[in-house]
Amino acid sequence: MMGADDSNRRSGTPGEVFTAFLRLGLTCFGGPIAHLGYFSSEFVLRRQWIDEAGYAELVALCQFLPGPASSQTGFLLGWRRAGAFGALAAWTGFTLPSALVMLALGFGVTHLDGPIAIHAIHGLKLVAIVVVAHAIWGMARTLTPDARRRAIALAALLIVALSGSSFAQLAAIALGAVLGPVLCRNSAVPPADSLPPPLNRQAGTVLLALFAILLIGAIAFAGIADRSPPGLFALFYRCGALVFGGGHVVLPLLRTELVPNGLVSEGDFLAGYGAAQALPGPLFTLAAYLGAVAGGSALAAGAALLGIFAPGLLLVSGALPFWATLRTSLLSRSIVAGVNAAVVGILAWALYDPLWTTGIASVGDVALVAIGLTLLLRWRAPPILIVVLLAVGSILLGTAP
C-alpha cells in the first residue's frame, strides 16, 4: 500500500512532466552520465518524485538494456509520475530542443563558433563534472553504506577503468548482480513501491514481440542504401537496437551504415557529431541531423529520430512488468542491492573518465568546479545557476584547451 508521500510522487500530470523535462532538455549538457546526474539532482533531491534506491533501480534496469540509458531513465521517471502519457511527455520534452537544432543544422543552418562559444562550451563540461559529483555523493551514502557494498562499487570501478570495451559497464553491472546474493543478502531491504506502475505481462510481451519484429524487418534492409523515410527508419532502428553504452557507442555503427553507402559524407557526419556534442539533451538526436542530410526532408529526419529511440523505449516498457515481479524476492532484492552498488562505481569512474579528463584544463577549471560543487552541496543552488556561472567563468578565464 502506498503511503501519503509516495502517493504524492505519483500525482503529477503529463504537462508538469513535459515542463520539467523541457527545462532539462534546454540545460542538460555533458552526455548520458551527466544526464543521470542531472536527473538525480532534479527528481530525487529537488522535486522528490522518487527516492535514491528507486532511482538507482531504474538506472540499473536501463543499463541492462540496449539503447540510450538516460533517455530510457527519463522515460520511466515520466511514467512513474504521470503514467504512459507522462513517459511520452518526458521523452518529448527532453529530446525536442536538441532535435530541433539538429534538424535545422541538417538543412544548412550554421552553428556558433569562435573563442567565446568555445569557452562557453568548455564551461558546460565543467557543469557536467559538478552535477555528476553531486549525484555520486548522494547515491554513495544511500547505496553503499557498508564495506561489502563499497567493495562491489570498487570492483565495478576497476572493471570499467581497466577495460576499453564498450561492454565494460554491462560486465560491471553483471558482477554486481553476481556478488549481490553473496555479499548483500542480509542488507537487502524490502523494495519500496518505487518503480512505475507497469503494464501487465500480456502487454509487455506484445511490446517485446513488436521490438523483435521491427528488428527482424530492419535487419532485412541491411546493406540497402535507401533514403526514403521507411528505409532510414530501418537503418536507425537497427543501430539503436544493437548498441549498449549510449550515444557515443552508436556513432561507429551509424558511420558504417551511412558514410560507405553514400547517404552522408564523412565531412557532414563529423560536423553533425561536433554540433551534437555542444548541445544539451541526448546525443541520439544526431539522428535528426543525419536523417535530414540523407533524406532531404523533415519526414526523413523524423523517421530517423523515431527509429533510433524506438528500440530502447519498446524494450524498457516491455521488460518492466517482468522486472517488477522478479524484484520482489529476497534473491532479486540482493541482486538489486549489488547492482545498485555497481552503478555507484561506474558513475565514480565516469566522473574521472571522460568527464574530468576531457573537462579539466587548468587550475582555474578546478576552482570553478569546487565553487559549483559547494553551491550545490551547501546551498542547494538550482542547476541552471551553476550552468550560467560556470559558462561565464570559463569565458572570463579563457582556459579551454
Describe this structure in words.
By secondary structure, the chain is mostly helical. It has a domain at 214-315. The chain has helices spanning 4-9, 14-27, 32-46, 52-64, 69-106, 115-143, 147-162, 168-183, 201-220, 229-241, 247-258, 266-277, 286-295, 298-326, 330-359, 363-379, 383-397. Helix 9 (201-220) crosses helix 10. The longest helix is centred in the N-terminal third of the chain and has 38 residues, at 69-106. The chain is globular and about 55 Å long.
Mean pLDDT over all positions? 83
**Helix segment tally:** 17
The amount of beta strand, in percent, is: under 5%
- Assign the structural class, choosing from mainly alpha, mainly beta, alpha/beta, alpha+beta, or little secondary structure: mainly alpha
Large-scale geometry? globular
Topology (SSEs and partners):
Elements: H1 4-9, H2 14-27, H3 32-46, H4 52-64, H5 69-106, H6 115-143, H7 147-162, H8 168-183, H9 201-220, H10 229-241, H11 247-258, H12 266-277, H13 286-295, H14 298-326, H15 330-359, H16 363-379, H17 383-397
Question: How would you describe this structure in keywords?
Answer:
401 residues; mainly alpha
Write a concise synopsis of the structure shown.
76% of the residues lie in helices and 0% in strands. With 401 residues, the protein is mostly helical.
